[in-house]
Amino acid sequence: MAISKAFFSSSLHPSLHYSPSRPTTVSLHFPFPFPFSAAPSRNLRLRCDAADSKPTVLIAEKLSDSGLDLLRDSADVDCSYGLSPDQLAAKIASCDALIVRSGTKVSREVFEAAKGRLKVVGRAGVGIDNVDLQAATEFGCLVVNAPTANTVAAAEHGIALLTSMARNVAQADASVKAGKWQRNKYVGVSLVGKTLAVMGFGKVGSEVARRARGLGMHVIAHDPYAPAERARALGVELVSFDDAIATADFISLHMPLTPTTDKMFNDETFSRMKRGVRIINVARGGVIDEDALVRALDNGQVAQAALDVFTEEPPAKDSKLVLHERVIVTPHLGASTVEAQEGVAIEIAEAVVGALNGELASTAVNAPMVPPEVLSELAPYVILAEKLGRLAVQLVAGESGIKGAKVVYTSSRDPEDLDTRLLRAMVTKGIVEPISSSFVNIVNADYIAKQRGLNFAEERIKREQNGLNGTPVNSIQVQIPHVGSLFASAVTDAGDIQVEGKVRDGVPHLTKIGSYAVDVSLEGNLILCRQVDQPGMIGKVGGILASQNINVSFMSVGRTFRGKQAIMAIGVDEEPNKETLEKIGTIPAIEEFVFLKL
């Protein structure tokens, strides 16, 4: 069984402007995990109800003067720092916009207390972990961030930690200030000729790689979405996750915190690294299991660590990790330069002012714009499109570089009458979101794809089918061309990973994988097995799952010819452990298998 881990960073995209005849905002709620805000007219406009007065913007954490000046030109600005949750809730009902950094939690209670007045929340920085996006969307509030202004600052801080760690600068400084002169104790290591693995080759990771190359280091990177051409231009070799951690002398982390990357660096991961590896983290604290890192430092598997971020910030005063003699730490200073702070302030101020003036900000993360009648009609196909994208990307081998995808729709309607913007956005969402911190919607889908070098093509095929003439879409097919696959049977003769699905009775179904026809509901978790077509296979696999108290929700078998090969698709309610999956793989007639989360 192959396991692939992947991630990358988020980006900015050009602004869009909407000018409807009458400003209004309507929230539509559907029973699936994708938030929608839409306007009954064909465009969306956000503005304050009191058209003759300036909107009020609450600044809950310090913002540089350049950003404040820009805001004051268009709004009344209330700078109230260090508010408790109760104080924030009491104040927010009189505010049209709120700007925060990472220290203020914008919870559901905040949106409830705003009573519908709050129109936009601006996060002065990249991560939006502290903003309840679902609640924001439910209350019709736009959320924007500022993801680009601190790129260079974060990269520079990563290099500063790298060099300081290698030469024991922090420890030696503390020693001298304590009246000691311990030259032999603080002998460092050279960077020239050492291998640096950059884990996450987005904006910050790329800039770290560029600077590390200038220090004479050999740089490798892991990021399945990084264009190979861009990596080669920087003199960087793209490798698999396992190769990156096994060969690196230094590992620099630049991935977002997602369910996939949460505690990705743990006891098992550390055990597969080169003994004496050194780790730098200026990304998110949660990607490292901090207790496991302490154990790895104590037993010498990890020689040193340099950390700017932590699972809990600030960390406990008695934190074993922070106090460890071979760890250097800084208090989340990645974006803390004068230049970066000014850039972030201006970027978020422009986004908030634009939103209050009726523009959909370039960094909006929760506001797809589709007429409600289209949303209603496409609702079940939206789920199908996202799950097909999610399924397809999990089939890609970790070391493969994805350059694009093709989406083919069959419909009884003429191609020009089928609005597929939302469906294409949801395929993009399914492909991108499981392994990134990007929030993909119809507004930013095309730009996010472009930033990652992903070329999305679409084909609409008119196909009359009995009883389906009233439905907007008969089937959706997702193809990822020319990539390696964790499940060879998903690859067509043309070398493309291909999955296809339909909606039946309102439920999305997988109907084809590669050249094999199947029929499975896209719910829960899925095990795909390619096997020799022979009696007893369903019982053997089902028996293994039953022995581990894993419930099978559905099972389907598709084959090419009798007695040849078949694909068995098994839906399971629980996630099997590694040992259970390995038992399935030991069945002689099973030629390959893969476990997928839907």
From TrEMBL:
Cell location: Plastid, Chloroplast
Main localisation: plastid
Catalytic activity: (2R)-3-phosphoglycerate + NAD(+) = 3-phosphooxypyruvate + NADH + H(+)
Sorted UniProt keywords: Amino-acid biosynthesis, Chloroplast, NAD, Oxidoreductase, Plastid, Serine biosynthesis, Transit peptide
SMART domains, alphabetized: AdoHcyase_NAD
GO molecular function: NAD binding; phosphoglycerate dehydrogenase activity
SUPFAM superfamilies linked to this entry: ACT-like (SSF55021), Formate/glycerate dehydrogenase catalytic domain-like (SSF52283), NAD(P)-binding Rossmann-fold domains (SSF51735), Serine metabolism enzymes domain (SSF143548)
Entry protein name: D-3-phosphoglycerate dehydrogenase
Organism of this sequence: Rhynchospora pubera
